[in-house]
Amino acid sequence: MKSCEVNFDGLVGPTHNYGGLSYGNVASQNNCQQSSNPREAALQGLAKMKALMEMGFTQGVLAPQERPDVAGLRKLGFSGNDAQVIERAAKESMPLLAASCSASSMWVANAATVSPSADTADGRVHFTAANLNCKYHRSIEHPTTSRVLGAMFADQQHFAHHAALPAVAQFGDEGAANHTRFCRSYGEPGVEFFVYGRAAFDSRVPAPQKYPARQTLEASQAVARLHGLSAEGVVFAQQNPAVIDQGVFHNDVISVGNGEVLFYHEDAFLNTEPMLAELHNKLGQRGGRFQAICVPRSEVAVEDAVRSYLFNSQLLSRADGSMLLIVPEECRSNERVWNYLQRLLADDSPIREVKVFDLKQSMQNGGGPACLRLRVALNETELAAVNPGVIMTAPLYDTLTQWVDKHYRDRMSDSDLADPQLLTECRTALDELTQHLQLGAVYPFQIN
Length: 448
Ligand code: SUG
Prior knowledge:
36% of the residues lie in helices and 17% in strands. The protein contains 19 helices and 15 strands. A hairpin with an 8-residue loop joins strand 6 and strand 7.
């Protein structure tokens, strides 16, 4: 049976703002309090979805979340009616209001970890929502994420959903941003590659000194167990703590994999050689030929990788077997990175084409092309079981761009976040969106 990888992109929500909320994420810190443009952000994301669809890839869309999170603000002691809760939060703690308004659910690489049916013990596609418990603004995503994923992949015969792991730092889980899958073809059993930043229950394992390591080994292992993966089909590897301290807050900022290829920076991992050997052997046992493309630090420094998001690219397999790399505009404006990419294309590498997208609104918060998508490998039967409302088509693209134009503001600053009218605008927009995407009731305001 034919299988393919479907990229589900996060639709940027109407409250997209630069809150400076992610310590360890250099872009988020550097752009704190800049005025953002939610409308442009959403349209940039939609343009990428449309372009991939037009290139022949199956493209999906993942809905944003209800923000401001008034219920969350109430839990933090702000009281009164909805408008009063927002006014009080704005007066007493603008950072908390910004966190409660963050549109961070757009980075759906962090929404969940997904294992295709070819890898799992029960032959279903497994999803574990990420607890994202390193940052408050992200830790509030998983309940709605679970409902949205449940509405997209509802058929229990094909899809299994697991709740987020216990919400403590020891099980810090950031989803697919630290997970890659290698395979000969999408429908065959593959090797799932889990990269962790620290081990919570073993103090001998080195950890970064400055910035937090968001993903723990114990979280990755728990996800692999929940999904019923076999020991032959998994590899656990540690991210180099030194690069986390340089702003590599997820593994997808320093490496990307697809098919039989791992594209990575020389400094990405600890104990690289044994890790590559294990990937080579395990993929070999599954009939695949592992290929590693290492970007040397002499050509691209870690700092350039972090600035340009070279590795936060989408590595996609085309029908002819060659690969395409989707990179952000920032790769073209960085001379060293752009020169490297030209050399890579001239080499005899599986990557034959590079396509550039303007995702500046998301990039300024540390989210590149790969952050914006959740990959789900599906066979034909499973694809047919996905809610058709979330699969991108030309008419859906038109509907969503009109929806954005109608509901989104073109700037978002503190005074916009403090405006109680924003809540009404967002709820109206999201209510309409659930109809466009045929999701049913998934938001707290629709349920309670
Ligand atoms: O979790 N930024 C996100 C970016 C996530 C990128 N995802 C991947 N690499 N897969 C984060 O740090 C910034 C929000 C703000 O500062 O307003 C933010 O949450």
